[in-house]
Amino acid sequence: MGRRKLVVGNWKMNGLRAHLPQVAAIGAEANTHASVEVGLCVPATLILSASEARGGAFIGGQDCHAQDSGAHTGCLSAAMLKEVGATWVIVGHSERRADQHETDADVAAKACAARAQGLKVILCVGESLDTRDAGAALPFVLSQLSASLPQAAAADWLSIAYEPVWCIGTGRIPTMDQISEMHGAIRAALVDAIGADGAHMRILYGGSVNAANAADVFALADVDGGLVGGASLKAESFGPIIAAAAAAG
Ligand SMILES: O=C(CO)COP(=O)(O)O
């Protein structure tokens, strides 16, 4: 479908100014693989300096509030992220759904708020191990997707990340068949929900992506790239993942 591969690092609560050389090195890797869109979602404290060091990579935030401003101590609006250089933001990461009790409706509202500021959005979905073991992964993820999907969802500003919770930071990944099945089901659900544009929306896989498994994952039909945690913290581990996406075309 001509979908450009998208590979995004999620630094989570990692990174101080001392790590900015890694942003520059990853930005340089991005420049050598221009066929791939590369980004880094860094802690909010690093967005400004990372956006000055970013090279060919875009810089994003890891969450935003659904409101533009107000009495929400400790929260950041999409406008605030944008002002310091973010062009993308992740919403609905499973760690926020678990730790901050974010609901599907919260996630949809955050995505809309980001869109209103002109930010591009990665919306995360994924099942727990219990749900997977109960044989309910597919219906769970599809229902989470449908309830989290923002109004006016469109491929030019929204991407989906399938991140099974049991694969995040565990070194485990689903089988290639399981990833294919889920991405195919998400693709069909997107086309169902938003029409033909759903065929253009990028669907990323996330959860223990590394240099050893990236080529196999990125070769799957409906996998349009990855959302990478631990392996994105250093250019030496993220670079080969970017290269694998470039090779997968
Ligand atoms: O949660 C993730 C990215 O958002 C995945 O993290 P890991 O790549 O460290 O498993």
TrEMBL record:
Which Gene3D superfamilies does the UniProt entry name for this protein? Aldolase class I (3.20.20.70)
Q: Name one GO biological process term.
A: glyceraldehyde-3-phosphate biosynthetic process
Top enzyme class, one word, equals isomerase
E.C. no: 5.3.1.1
Keyword terms of this UniProt record: Cytoplasm, Gluconeogenesis, Glycolysis, Isomerase
Kindly list the places in or outside the cell where this protein is found, as annotated in its UniProt entry: Cytoplasm
The reaction(s) catalysed by this protein are: L-erythrulose 1-phosphate = D-erythrulose 4-phosphate; D-glyceraldehyde 3-phosphate = dihydroxyacetone phosphate
- Quote the record's binding site residues for substrate: N10, W11, K12, G169, S208, G229, G230
Q: Where is the signal peptide?
A: none
PROSITE patterns reported for this sequence = TIM_2
According to the UniProt entry, its GO molecular function terms are: triose-phosphate isomerase activity
Which SUPFAM superfamilies did the record assign? Triosephosphate isomerase (TIM)
Which is one Pfam family of this protein? TIM
Q: Which parts form a coiled-coil structure per UniProt?
A: none
Q: Where is the active site?
A: H93, E163
A single GO CC term for this protein reads: cytosol
Pathway the protein acts in: Carbohydrate biosynthesis; gluconeogenesis; Carbohydrate degradation; glycolysis; D-glyceraldehyde 3-phosphate from glycerone phosphate: step 1/1
Q: What does this protein do?
A: Involved in the gluconeogenesis. Catalyzes stereospecifically the conversion of dihydroxyacetone phosphate (DHAP) to D-glyceraldehyde-3-phosphate (G3P).
UniProt cross-references to NCBIfam families, sorted A to Z: tim
Which family, according to the similarity comment?
Belongs to the triosephosphate isomerase family.
Quaternary structure, per UniProt, is: Homodimer.
Would you tell me the protein name for this molecule? Triosephosphate isomerase
